[in-house]
Amino acid sequence: MRSGRRWIKAAHWRTRRRRKTACSAFRPFSLVVPLTYASDALHSIMLRGWGVGQVQVAVDVLVLLAYDALTLLGAAVFVRRQA
User: pTM to 2 decimals?
Assistant: First the structure.
């Protein structure tokens, strides 16, 4: 059972290391993709034990809600023009 714990820690270390060494040229593009905010919020909640009351998690959730609202508004305008 202890080997399983070591494997999980090693896997977490590898993903953390890969995340830090990602190409910095792609960082501006990742800020546009809402999946980045969802994964950051879930990462903070599940691994760090933070709640929605933390500022970083709240900002991520607000960005996702704003993206949802803009997408819904754009779809409504598009459908209205088609009809």
Answer: 0.66
Query: Domain residues for 62?
Result: 2-82
The structural domain count of the chain equals 1
pLDDT, tens digit, 9 for 90 and up, residues 5-61: 555 555 554 455 555 556 788 888 888 899 999 999 999 999 999 998 999 999 999
Region of residue 65 (phi > 0: left; psi between -120 and 50: alpha; otherwise: beta): alpha
Q: Report the b/e string of 20-50 with b at 16+ CB within 10 A.
A: eeeeeeeeeeeeeeeeebeebbeebeeeeeb
